[in-house]
Design brief:
Blueprint lengths: L5 E4 L15 H14 L3 E5 L5 H13 L4 E7 L2 H10 L6 E8 L2 H8 L3 H16 L5 E6 L6 H14 L3 E6 L6 H14 L7 E6 L6 H10 L4 E4 L13 H10 L16 H12 L20 H9 L19 E3 L5 H10 L7 H17 L3 E2 H15 L4 E9 L7 E8 L2 E8 L3 H13 L4 E9 L8 E9 L2 E9 L2 H16 L14
Helix pairs in contact: 1-2, 1-10, 2-3, 3-5, 5-6, 7-8, 13-14, 15-16
This protein binds 3-methyl-2-oxobutanoic acid and zinc ion.
């Protein structure tokens, strides 16, 4: 059995299924590149049949990624498999992941199919997927609540049909580690051709056990774990990649397999990128990537760590990227240094014009902020990318008056489809006044679901990164904006969300939606 644990990241697919976490094509490519830098083995980029936008996003990721395998999800239906095959055509290494539910409740109530029909459809889909790639994964959805006997029959048939990875999902997060581990062991023992496939697990976190269940499966022979950055995913989310990876790396004495092929110093960057793009903040006490994960507040702990860090630290903060946020540049840094540092961060420009534009932003920022960190540079480039996307509304200027005892007032100047517009509005605070001024021009009819501010670095001159989540007719989008002035960052984020909501049709959920 392989001593390598394959890491299958599904942030771009299952992660995107969390309400409000939808990502644009460019955002998906940015996250995929960060995952590739971490040397994640497989990146599930989306569900190509869900919408033209999803198809294009999977296609764009397939074109951009060279070192990781790119995967597309397909229900066990011809049309889904064809669409996935088409979207992945240009991938260096492509995988099709096809699935059908096998639990009694899903077969009866959702699919309205007999078990034998389900088995036949699974086999047909796997065979069809093999026309596009040798790398086919099959998942019996809701395996965690399926009958063992039937599960064994379906999995054996899928392997015979050509599936080389068998993924066992605990779709509704119902399992308990000991039992889930035993399930993996039983499947591997009972299925005659089990040695022809890599066993994988995909655990949801409804009982807070996704990581524990996944690790129990690894101890029982699973050699692929499906997981997401920050544990993003449907409902309570999926197993968190950073926790799985660091558990296996830290407890080499326990796990019979390794993740040494991964560059774990990229973890924190990926976490921040995903959090910024989706607007899902990371709680301070979150393992590995939370702000307090390596902070030692109490006197006793600090004393111990200073004498010998291993008294209270089981991992090194720098191994997951905590010290990577170096102060790199300032006002006097030149264009070449700027380009070189961004290249080191994995960010390259398509043209000199793009580089010059980003460098102009850097100089503006350096005038306001003396020390520029890696995270500031990332935010600058994100801003440049945001503006490049579907920008029919642009912010020209914002003036805000806020005074003790007075009602805050904002005056906004925007260009909408090449026409300049101005409006003034009062509000409960400067941000509220700014949003009302924008709305008095666009009258979008959107509902504000979330407004959040994160400081990108520390200090009062830090850039604030604002996320705004808007909803209209069931469609939810996130907008981002960054600036040293958080009111301006807020207006940028609001306008970014408006630009997205006008241009993005909704896409279907592979497990519940009709496509
Ligand atoms: O949770 C689940 O069962 C899934 C499948 C599509 C693998 O996401
Ligand atoms: Zn899932």
């Amino acid at each position: 059995m392989s001593d390598k644990l394959f890491i299958f990241d599904t942030t771009l697919r299952d992660g995107e299924q969390s309400p409000g976490a939808s990502m644009t094509k460019d955002e998906k490519v940015r996250i995929a590149k960060a995952l590739e830098r971490m040397r994640v083995d497989i990146i599930e980029a989306g569900f190509p049949i869900a919408s033209p936008g999803d198809f294009e996003a999977v296609q764009a990721v397939a074109r951009a990624i060279k070192d990781s395998t790119v995967c597309g999800l397909a229900r066990a239906l011809d049309k889904d498999v064809e669409r996935a095959g088409e979207a992945l055509k240009e991938a260096n290494s492509a995988r099709i992941h096809t699935f059908i539910a096998t639990s009694p409740i899903h077969m009866k109530m959702k699919l309205r199919m007999e078990p034998d029909q389900v088995l036949a459809q699974a086999v047909k889909a796997v065979k069809k997927a093999r026309h596009y790639t040798d790398n086919v994964e099959f998942s019996p959805e809701d395996a965690g609540r399926s009958e063992l006997e039937f599960l064994c029959r379906v999995v054996e048939a899928a392997i015979t049909a050509g599936a080389r990875t068998i993924n066992i999902p605990d779709t509704v997060g119902y399992n308990i580690p000991e039992y889930f581990g035993r399930l993996i062991q039983q499947l591997r023992e009972r299925i005659p051709n089990a040695d022809k496939a890599v066993f994988s697990v995909h655990c949801h976190n409804d009982l807070g056990l996704a990581v524990s269940n996944s690790l129990a499966a690894v101890l029982n022979g699973a050699r692929q774990v499906e997981c997401t950055i920050n544990g993003l995913g449907e409902r309570a989310g999926n197993a968190a990649l950073e926790e799985i990876v660091m558990a296996v790396k830290t407890r080499k004495d326990v796990f019979p397999c390794s993740v040494d092929h991964l560059d774990t110093t990229q973890i924190l960057h990926c976490s921040r990128l995903v959090s910024g793009i989706t607007g899902f903040p990371v709680q301070p006490n979150k393992a590995i990537v939370g702000a307090n994960a390596f902070a030692h507040e109490s006197g006793i702990h600090q004393d111990g760590v200073l004498k010998n860090r291993e008294t209270y630290e089981i991992m090194r903060a720098e191994d997951v990227g905590w010290s990577a946020n170096r102060m790199v540049m300032g006002k006097h840094s030149g264009r070449n240094a700027f380009r070189t540092r961004l290249k080191e961060l994995g960010i390259e420009f398509n043209s000199e014009a793009q580089l010059n534009e980003a460098f102009g932003r850097f100089k503006d920022l350096a005038d306001k902020k003396h020390e520029i960190y890696d995270d500031d540079l990332q935010a600058l480039v994100t801003e440049a990318n945001l503006e490049a996307e579907n920008e029919h509304i642009q912010l020209v200027a914002l003036r805000v008056c806020s005074e003790t005892g007075e009602t805050p007032r904002a005056r906004i100047n925007m260009v909408i489809d090449n026409q300049e517009k101005t409006a003034t509005a009062d509000g409960g605070g400067p941000v509220d006044a700014s949003f009302k001024a924008i709305e008095s021009i666009v009258a979008s009819g959107c509902q504000l679901l979330l407004y959040s501010v994160n400081n990108i670095t520390t200090g009062t001159d830090a850039q604030g990164e604002v996320t705004v989540r808007l909803e209209k007719a069931g469609r939810i989008v996130n907008g981002q904006g960054a600036d040293t002035d958080i009111v301006i960052a807020s207006a940028k984020a609001y306008i970014n969300a408006l630009n997205k909501i006008g241009s993005r049709p909704p896409s279907a959920n592979p497990q519940t939606g009709d496509v």
